[in-house]
Specification:
Layout: E1 7-13, E2 30-31, E3 34-35, H1 36-44, E4 52-56, H2 61-67, E5 77-78, H3 83-94, E6 101-106, H4 114-125, E7 130-136, E8 141-144, E9 150-153, E10 159-161, E11 165-168, H5 169-178, H6 187-193, E12 198-202, H7 213-225, E13 227-242, E14 245-248, E15 251-254, E16 257-259, H8 267-279, H9 285-288, H10 302-314, E17 318-327, H11 337-348, E18 355-360, H12 366-369, E19 373-385
Parallel strand pairs: 1-4, 1-6, 4-5, 7-12, 17-18
Antiparallel strand pairs: 2-3, 6-11, 7-10, 7-11, 8-9, 13-16, 13-19, 14-15, 17-19
Helix pairs in contact: 3-5, 5-6, 8-10
Length: 386
């Protein structure tokens, strides 16, 4: 089986944003409660397997630190006098890791979607050297002549290039080194100069570059109306069997019995997994991890939850909140509640405040009251592109 290609993400954030106006560069301005740069990083954070490098202006280190607080990122690379210099510095910083592909993205495009990135990567995987998202020109184009008159510019074959622009890493680094004295406005121009094969992929109108105050206001409006919220629920039951511990919400708890199941029988994570799958219309846990498949015998259920979370991200969605209720007489959940919340937050990559774990009993009634087993239910809210 061939290995998956490694992907690095290079975010160019060294510009001063003079056209935007004001003292603070636009990438550090607030967009719907978060800086533009932070939104851009979060939008792409699940793409590059940890290989994320940001290039910043030498005078903006404090702005960068505030914008990325709490994010697991390497030290930023200092940019140069031009965008081209900044990109080359970023590529050089990644050379020791030698990824297969690199995605070069403008920090001022925070509305990039996961689907767009997947189109770029899919084109690279087919063998081209470069994949560029483009949008066809829809407006009528006019050129003003020297005498003040106007002439029509045919728009057939005219495209607007966007980012992230994807490249085979070794090829674009070589092009930057070879043509560093040639002034260009984007990396596609260097790819052309180097004779690289270039594929066009469909860009997105919403993948706008924020350049002016009007752009920022437009992005605010897009964010306000671009998403819908969905709710999903999950329920799971496991009986007790012989053993000395149970797994609940990703935590091992010593107990007089174990839970019976094909996997580790973690009812809490199973219910939460089903809730996410339900919210995105992706079936249930049994469809993705059938109990008849020996691969999942005694498997840790964090794999199931991570898979559901990956599907949510692939759909361009975000996990908003989850509420898990464990129904049992024993074991006591209270001493382990916070550890459960922490573990779920780790698996999903979310702030701790977005997950709740509760416990209740059935006052001695039913199978849980007779301590024959336990149950769990979960409700989640997710945000998806409308």
């Amino acid at each position: 089986m061939s290995r998956m290609p490694s992907v690095a993400l290079l975010i160019v954030s060294a510009g001063k944003g003079d056209r935007f106006g004001g003292g603070v560069p636009k990438q550090y301005r607030s967009l719907a409660g978060q800086t533009i740069l932070r939104r851009t990083i979060l939008a792409l954070s699940d793409v590059a397997d940890g290989l994320i490098q940001v290039v910043v202006g030498p005078d903006h280190l404090e702005n960068y630190a505030a914008a990325t607080a709490g994010l697991d990122l390497p030290m930023p690379v200092l940019g140069g006098a031009t965008r081209q210099d900044s990109v080359r510095s970023g590529l050089e910083s990644l050379s020791a890791k030698a990824p297969d592909f690199v995605l070069i993205h403008d920090a001022a495009r925070p509305l990039v979607t996961h689907a767009l990135v997947l189109r770029v990567l899919a084109a690279l995987e087919k063998g081209v050297d470069a994949a560029i998202p483009m949008v066809a020109m829809a407006d009528t184009l006019r050129r003003q002549n020297a005498d003040g008159s106007w002439s029509l510019v045919p728009r057939d074959g005219i495209w607007r290039a966007q980012t992230p622009q994807g490249f085979r890493f070794a090829e674009i680094l070589k092009a930057h080194r070879e043509f560093k004295s040639q002034s260009v406005t984007d990396d596609m121009a260097l790819a052309e100069a180097a004779g690289l094969s270039i594929a066009r992929v469909d860009g997105e109108e919403t993948n706008m570059k924020i350049t002016t105050q009007d752009d920022l206001a437009h992005a605010e409006r897009l964010l306000a109306g671009a998403y819908e919220f969905r709710t999903g629920s999950g329920f799971d039951v496991h009986r007790f069997t012989e053993g000395d511990h149970v797994w609940l919400c990703g935590i091992r708890i010593d107990h007089t019995h174990a839970l019976e199941g094909h996997s580790d029988a973690d009812a809490g994570l199973h219910a939460l997994t089903d809730a996410i799958l339900g919210a995105i219309g992706a079936g249930d846990i049994g469809q993705h991890f059938p109990p008849s498949d020996e691969r999942w015998r005694n498997a840790a259920s964090d794999r199931f939850l991570a898979h559901a979370n990956d599907l949510l991200h692939s759909a361009g969605g975000q996990f908003v909140h989850g509420d898990v209720t464990l129904i049992c007489e024993r074991p006591k959940i209270g001493p382990h509640r916070e550890a459960m919340r922490v573990r779920i937050a780790e698996i999903l990559g979310i702030p701790l405040g977005r997950i709740s774990v509760k416990a209740t009993t059935t006052e001695g009634l039913g199978f849980t009251g007779r301590r024959e087993g336990l149950a769990a239910e979960a409700v989640v809210t997710v945000k998806l592109p409308a």
